[in-house]
Design goal:
By secondary structure, the chain is mostly helical. Helices cover 66% and strands 6% of the residues. The strands form 2 sheets. Strands 1-4 form a two-stranded antiparallel sheet. This is HEPN AbiU2-like domain-containing protein. It comes from Svornostia abyssi.
Length: 231
């Protein structure tokens, strides 16, 4: 294992804008690594998977601002990116293109806006008008399932475990409010396309950030700031 060590004040001066930008990237990538692990676990309850996919998409939405919005409005960021390997620059460009592309099965929906929808519903709950409307629509859809005979429950077991399964049902529908979806857990094309976009975006983002970290630590910082250790 190789470890790169440095004094924080020398490597990441608090008042250096690029140092702050790279620090934000590293914090963001750490979050992605954690949530990706949980979102992609093979063995987990359905409501857990839905939660972690929502968190995954929400992180990607916010992290993408660093790659797209900061790149567009900050010359220092563009200069930094211009010094990175071409493969890393291509990954950023691909992330930008994907975010501004429409879904093949939903040509009127742009990836950037649909991921925003997931983020808003995850963290805003119903504090804004659009999220409130989506909650009402999801509740209506669930109420109409099985000819209006859809049942759900609140679980209390002997170990003190509590779960509002009716909330899980509505949250799942609000996450995937697609008319093509059935009332069971089958993953159909529209849902699959959304999940594939999230995974593909994560690949581009992770590739870029890892390269940005390496570029900053190994190329941008003055010689002698970073020490290499083999363990």
């Amino acid at each position: 294992m190789e470890r790169l060590t440095f004094k924080m004040r020398e490597a990441f001066p608090p008042d250096d804008p690029i140092a702050g930008w790279v620090m934000n990237l590293s914090i963001a990538l750490g979050d992605l690594r954690i949530v990706a692990k949980y979102a992609t676990r093979e063995e987990q309850l359905a409501h857990e998977r839905i939660y972690f996919v929502r968190i995954f998409a929400s992180h990607l939405r916010e992290i993408s601002k660093l790659l797209v919005l900061d790149y567009n409005k900050r010359q220092d960021v563009r200069d930094f990116v211009a010094g990175m390997p071409q493969a890393a620059q291509d990954a950023r460009d691909e992330a930008d293109r994907l975010l501004h592309a429409a879904f093949g099965l939903r040509p009127d929906v742009v990836v950037w806006e649909d991921v925003k929808r997931l983020r808003d519903d995850t963290f805003h709950y119903v504090s804004d008008r659009d999220s409130q409307a989506r909650l009402v629509e999801a509740m209506r859809t669930v109420a109409d399932m099985r000819g209006g005979e859809m049942e759900s429950s609140y679980v209390l077991d002997d170990n003190g475990w509590l779960r509002a399964e009716y909330a899980d049902l509505v949250a799942a529908n609000r996450m995937h409010p697609f008319p093509q979806e059935h009332e069971d857990d089958t993953e159909l094309p529209v849902t699959l396309e959304l999940h594939e976009a999230i995974i593909k975006l994560n690949g581009y983002v992770a590739t870029f950030i890892q390269a940005a970290e390496a570029h900053y630590l190994l190329d941008v910082l003055p010689a002698g700031v970073v020490d290499h250790h083999h363990e």
